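[job 4471] stage=fold_predict status=RUNNING
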Amino acid sequence: MPLDPDRIDFMPSPPTSPDDIPIDIGHLGRMTLGDASLERQVLAMFSAQTDSLIGALTALPADAAALAHKLKGSARAIGAFRLADAAHRLEAAIQNGAAPAKPLGDLADAVAQARSAVEAMLRRS
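[job 4471] inference complete, writing structure tokens
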């Protein structure tokens, strides 16, 4: 017997990440399959890659949109959704020919918050 969608009480989904945290620990745990060693490796790689990408992005090279896109993907992979959103805004601004100064500043702030959280997580482990 098929289900009648009008009679099903759907439960709203929780947000993917609370707004007040730079890294969604639950997401990171799922992506690393609960392996603490893998989590540390992924966080260390993310930290190094973020340094490289934000350093390059501050000069706004010709491939800045691609670099912002790469940073967005890396941030989403570890659960740094606020950082991913900031990278997306910079990517969109560049692609649309908008002034990149504000999105780049917002991205730098999000990177600093995420990097601080990553460093704290690495010190605890």
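[job 4471] summary: The radius of gyration is 17 Å.
[job 4471] exit 0
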